[in-house]
Amino acid sequence: MDLDAIQSALRRAGIDIVPLAGTMFRAILILGSGLLLAHILRSRVQALLSRRAFGRNGAILVGRFVSLAVIVASGLAVLGSFGANWTALLTFLSASTVAVALAIQDVLKNFVAGVLLLIERPFRVGDVIRVRDVNGEVQGIDIRTTLVRSGDGALVMIPNAVVYTEILMNRSLAGSKRLELRIEVRALAIPEAERRIATVLDDTPGLRRPVPAPVIKSITAEVTLFELSVLIDADHAIEADVLRRLASVLEDSTIEVK
Questions:
Q1: Number of structural domains, the chain?
Q2: pTM higher than 0.70
Q3: Which residue ranges traverse the bilayer (predicted)?
């Protein structure tokens, strides 16, 4: 069957191939442009928010939300190019949105609270906060939860809505700094090394409480590598005091400031 015969058959069916081809081309152009715009906006938003100290998780979260909004708008524009009934479409979308919102209202509540926390920034990653009976260092903000590392090293996931609506105490003051250490321990068993490090940190003034436990990063036959991150008063004397105290109890060890 040649092209003329196909076109004649489509016309008898009430379909004009030229306007249809134009509509399809316009729909593909709209969808392609929307996907490209969504990708560009997501990258730009993530880069912008990261520079404003939103944190990587927060920047990714908002960037994906912006990208999804652009893709949905492009999809609606494509349906409109095919002559979709906007009244029926909007009615369907409204009903679907209400149904989905009711089904995942807790997730949406925590998502919105997370976005508000990122905008208002009552704390930053690394700050020591207290919410209800949870006291620890902020590790990040995800879609549903704020991640807090407690003093005993446990990772606590607090719903964002709880963090946003409850009384929040931020124990990190402006005059503090983060001290990050790499400690290579030799000639000591791991439990003994952990005990000595914990004792030094508990006895040293100028450290913000709670003090996190050292984290084991690698173990070999001769060396155990610990990493330690603590908040201290912004004073070089305190930093030097911490290093001296650790060196005095960890014989034959290497301590480096990261």
A1: 3
A2: no
A3: 20-41, 61-80
